[in-house]
Amino acid sequence: MLASVIIEYSVKSLNKVFDYIIPNDIKDIIKVGHKVIVPFASKEVEGFVLNIHNNKDNNIEYRSIIKVQDSDFYLNSELLELGKYMSNSLLCNLISCYQVMLPKALKASIKTNINKKYETKVSLNKNIDISKYIEEHKRRVKEIEIINLLKNNEILKKEIACESLNNLIKNNIVIENKYEINREVLIETEKEKNIKLTIEQEEAVNEILNSKDYKFLLYGVTGSGKTEVYIELIRRCLKENKTAIVLVPEISLTPQIVSRFKSVFGNLVAVFHSSLSEGEKYDEYRRIMKGEVSLVVGARSAIFSPLKNLGLIIVDECQSQTYKQENTPKYNAIDIAYKRCEYNNAKVVLGSATPALEEYARGKKGVLHLVELTKRISGKLPNIELVDMEIEAKKHNYIISEKLDTEIKKSLSKNEQVILLLNRRGYSTFLSCTNCGYVYKCPNCDISLIYHKSSNTYSCHYCGYRCEKSNICPNCHEEAIKDLGLGTEKLESLIEKKYNTKVLRMDADTTSTKNAHQKLIKEFSSGNYNILVGTQMISKGLNFENVSLVGIINPDASLSIPNFRSAERTYELLSQTAGRVGRFDLDGKVIIQTYNKDNYVYNAVLKNDFNTFFNYEMNIRKKLKYPPYYYICSILITSSNFNTSGSAANKIKKFLDNNLNQDYIVIGPSVSSIVKLKNKYRFNIMIKYKTKDNLYKVLNELNNITIKDVNIDINVNI
Question: Which end of the chain is more exposed for a tag (fewer CB within 10 A), N or C?
Fold first, then answer.
């Protein structure tokens, strides 16, 4: 018997299946979809079984499969088909698509070997005359105590481990029993709330359930109770013996939303996100494979959960760019959700207060079924004010304006809490010599280093390069290095001193350890801190009853990013952060500090008017031929040599011009906004198009072109 195996190999264009003999010892366990280790050339490589057959060619000398990596796990027929779809649409090798479907612990890696976890319990041997043993060993007091303890009981061995217990085991009076256990994902479960849906929420639920459509966009203002709609939809789904997936964009959202789902659905919930240990992911995946769970909550990769009888997929905060994977395969979890729901005859619900413009446009056109929640549960929207920082700068108020200062003091005097958003981590964002103008830059990237006071190092947030802080300029050797700019670490320090109060910081530096998000959210919720300083991770999905004020520091930075989505993402960030207040009984106030007070983005946020922003931005997109009016494909050309990269980019541009007609707009090549990243020089080419037609044929040809010392990275539908 032979198995056809797709293997992992370093050759870019190798996307072939090879046949291997199935050894007798695994004939009864091997399945299509199993991950296996096989010999290839002089190496052992990983692969997936795509077919099992008897079509043996006597002229070929076959090699044998070395082992099945884990017989408990395999890709089912749906996921195998999904991998083929991804490979074709994303222009990548099939093996990479299958690998991304499994947590790291389950990938068919020779080195990775996450074991099942066991616990040992002890009990009395019922086949032995215990009374006789007691009579003969009356003086062994400790042994008699253990025997009495184990009468009608089974106890963890580690709880009574001692020499006397070992003697009883040796004499076969006590026996050991090994039980497989799961590594429990610790989530603090909140008390179940008996919440009655509002009329608007009930109408939204019924509209989704009663429609024959399968793609929905749930557009609801912040605080309108989208989570309650999700819960009711899931409850109805589970009643029909179907399963569901809920995707969230950030790990920071996971603790609160998982806690909410756990309180309603208990142990039927499995959790997937990157802060879990590999062992925890392994056990959660096994629970899904065994059919022990009906609901999976997690970040992007949870979309591949092998649930049976899938009935519903919910994508919360669907506008988030984290749903698009940056590495190969560059899939978008929303596209995968559509494909899975199509396969399973299920429904997909995208939810957001600030949906991506493309999704909202499709909702308006009826491509997505648009369902709206227009009212906040609390009945009140926050009061939003803009502060002109040009005026404040003349008063030397560069960080905290007079207005924000007054409101912070007012909130603290009432024992209310404050959130301050600054979307830049670190202490200082710019290190320069005041004598000669030298700027500390990363040697691997064309980017300024960031100063982190807690570690007293200069750091690159792109490649991870670090060096110790020094006030001596490496150029002029004067002691004249000054740290300029503002990050969350410096803001935390300044706020703590200015208001003499307890400040909590939430950014990538303070949340790098296991369960850190959960601990920080709990600390702030319990009132142990008065002010929360953080990056964009505090802008979505968090509910704090005692927060009455949000201050937004330097939002202009995100507007100036050279990306056609910068206005959209700034609106999203401000609107979502503003939505953290006024959700409960307290009135909410939001102060936005800007040097660009008349910008249309700020004025739309000020009026809480998504539709005005949408119409204005869509007019710009139409004129500039950006999504949703055109699709975009980005081609990144990189090399360790600037000239090599530039020359290759010009050749690729010529190839595209010769093979694509005038319906395609080819722009570039141009240097990337960050010219050098991780010691690679970067050039971009952009293709704008309305229909695929000949595009995929041309891109596949390009994908198979090999240019020495050059990497070509194709990203469709950015």
Answer: N
